[in-house]
Amino acid sequence: MEIDEWAIGQRIAQYRQRRGLTQDELAGLAGISLSMMKKIEAGTRTVTRFSQLVLFAQILRVSDLRELTGVPLSLMPDGRRGHPAVDAVRTAVLQRGQGAEPVGLARVQRMAARAWSTWQEPSAFRYDAVGQYLTEAIGLAQVQVDAASGEERRQALATASSVYQLARTWTKRVGEYDLSWVVADRAVACAIDADDPDLAAAAAWNLAMILSAQGKTAQARSVIRQAIVRLARLVDDQSAPARLAVYGGLHLLGATEAAREDDARDAQCLLDAAAEIAARTGETNYHRMAFGPTNVALHRIFTAIELGRTREAAELVERTDARNAPSVERRLTFHIDAARCYTRRGNVVAAVHMMGRVLRDSRDELRYNPTAQETLRHLSARCTPSIRADLDPLLEAAGLAR
Predict the structure, then answer these.
(1) Are residue 46 and residue 96 in the same domain, yes or no?
(2) Is 271 within the bounds of a domain?
(3) Are 177 and 213 in contact (CB under 8 A)?
(4) What are the CA-CA distances from residue 101 to residues 141, 198, 303 (Å)?
(5) Of 49, 69, 89, which one is at a domain's C-terminal end?
(6) Could you give the 3-state DSSP secondary structure of residue 262?
(7) Distance between CA 385 and CA 144 in Å, rounded?
(8) For a pLDDT cut of 70, what percent of the chain falls above it?
(9) How buried is residue 290: exposed, middle or buried, by Cβ count under 10 Å (0-12/13-18/19+)?
(10) For the chain, how long is the longest CA-to-CA vector?
């Protein structure tokens, strides 16, 4: 059975009325603008993210997502799939290095670098390997901070911030949003204590990312605006590429959040500013933020999707080569977004092809990424017998095979 995306808005309106909420009240609880809320209920904008659908269900006290979608969904209502390493990572975060012995800053830095490299390179075992790295690295990074002083402590704080930022990324991807919030907050605290404005801006970017994942778009935009204003005071014609890259990355995230609130004008301004910065930096990966012309192009696609401009997004997909992106995360996001565009335009063959690229680069992305799961469900509903043989391996990898 196929999901009727346009009917979802009507069902949301019905449950909103049953709960006695106004459109303005539901919009506030969901972290979106009143304008977007009206468009969703009117059917002129679809709920584009699975996490947003889950958030509506939680607010409206809908225990079964089929009440909003009209079809059964196999994923649990909180969107989690329970990665086996989560408990160990959570324990490491809560223990804060208790019982661990300092092993030297250089070793912790090497471990953090290996963990990040593993996460940003194609691998069938990215999620498992990084989960294991984090279990050890979080405790060692924290105890190193506690044991050091002076300049070495500042370096240890910077390393710990980097480890917590990776933990934020990993925990978000496996659906552990509460834990992701904790480690994002610690990343910011470590960066501030290290007295490194660029690192603090990167940590603020991470914090805004988890706010966004939780549907708190307005709060995410506020964090980004403040970070941009603070860093703008330090940006000039002589600024190093690392500072410019972080500055540009904040603009890109700001653009996606503006699009989620249906603020097309602000999204365009932020994208244009980011493009100017990217022209100065080229392709970079400072603070593991993967900023550059390629990432600007990918964010143009994403903002077009969020604004409901599917034709524009599809045209951008056709003109974009994501091979220059310095991080597999960016390439995976591009392939998933491209698949979303093609699915909405009825090009199932192209959509399945793009999801096949995701399987090639990171099998676990299909299992843990809610957007990938949502896209595969749509494809399964629309797939013809001629393409079923190519789709079935994707559904099996995602745990969605029937």
Answers:
(1) no
(2) yes
(3) yes
(4) 10, 29, 46
(5) 69
(6) coil
(7) 57
(8) 94
(9) buried
(10) 66
Distance of CA 261 to the CA centre of its chain: 16
pLDDT, tens digit (0-9, with 9 covering 90-100), for 32-88: 788 888 888 887 777 756 667 777 888 888 877 777 876 554 443 344 446 889 999
The reported pLDDT for the residue numbered 74 is: 42
- Quick one: average pLDDT of 314-329? 90
Place of tokens 């843990």: 368
DSSP class per residue in 176-213: -HHHHHHHHHHHHHHHHHTT-HHHHHHHHHHHHHHHHH
Using CA atoms, how far residue 71 sits from 3, 10, 13, 76, 368, in Å, is 6, 15, 18, 14, 21
Residue ranges making up the domain that contains 179:
81-195
CA–CA separation, 96 and 146 (whole Å): 10
Q: Do 160 and 94 lie in a common domain?
A: yes
Of 317, 251, 309, 323, residue with least CA distance to 280: 251
Instruction: Return the CA Rg of the chain.
Output: 21
DSSP classification of residue 45: S
Domain count, the chain: 4
CB distance 300 to 259 below 8 Å: no
Q: How far apart are CA 255 and CA 264, in angstroms?
A: 9
* pLDDT, tens only, 194-223: 999 999 999 999 999 988 877 788 899 999
Written as six digits, the tokens of 263 are 């603020």
Q: Do 300 and 271 meet the contact criterion of CB atoms below 8 Å apart?
A: yes
**265 and 340 fall within a common domain:** no
Any domain includes 204: no
Clarify whether residues 291 and 268 are in a common domain. yes
Which whole number is the average pLDDT over 343-356? 93
Task: Please write the tens of the pLDDT for every residue from 111-150.
Answer: 999 999 999 988 878 899 999 999 999 999 999 999 999 9
- In angstroms, the CA 167 to CA 192 distance is 18
Pairwise CA distance, residues 47 & 68, whole Å: 11
Give the count of beta carbons closer than 10 Å to the beta carbon of residue 135.
Answer: 17
